[in-house]
Structures are given as structure tokens and as C-alpha cells.
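Sequence in, structure out.
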Amino acid sequence: VEHSDFDLLAGYYFWPQVSLFVDLKGAGSKWKNNGYQQNFGGLGFGVSAYHPLNQDWLLFGSLGFVNGEVKDDDVSDLGDGKSRSLILGSVYTLDKDQHLNFGFRFRKYRFDFDDGNRQDFTLNGIFVGYTHIFKW
């Protein structure tokens, strides 16, 4: 099964290091053996925060929840779905324009189909990234 996720977030820092956000989510799974595709999409909310440890290290986290609809590749409505996500990580500053980031992602889906069946699955992993700030 090939899986893809898309999240578009908009948030606001209500407190100096804590923000609340809304999330427009789309996720898709495609079975390679038969070409069947199942899609999930919806609107959610969450909270994110960061905490500087010193001038080089920063900890961050994000917790989000999404409710939406499950559809198949024919765009038929199959039922309702829920997703929750937890991200925990850190950022190391190489210099003021370059950063390394790494951490853990935990995501769980629950789909309740109209025919009475239920599908639960989780996607967990480690991420590593590099950020460069370009100045125009």
C-alpha cells in the first residue's frame, strides 16, 4: 500500500511559545496489487509549542485531531474517519541560517464505514531534516 498525506495549517501564537491551529487534511492509500484507492479528508485543529534549551537547541511538539469523510477511488462516500497526530522533535542550529531537525511522528487513523466495518491503522516513524533560510 502506498500512502500519502497532505496538511495545510494556519495558526496563531496566542501565547509566546504556544500556538493553536486549524488543519485542512487529505490522505490517500493506494493498493499496488489491484489499484484500489481510498481517500480521507477533513478539517481539524491542534496545538503546537516550542521550548528553547539554549542558543543551539530547541524542542518542539505538535498535537492535532482531524474528523472527515472516507471515499473510494470512484469518489463514493464510504463512511467517516478520524485522525490524530503527535510530533515530537528538536532543532539544532548550525548557524543563524542553517538548522538540523529530527524527531518522531505518530499518526493514527480510524475509519468507520457505512457497512458497519471499522479500520484502524497507525503510521509511526523517525524524521530527519535540514533547513536553510534564504534571504532575498
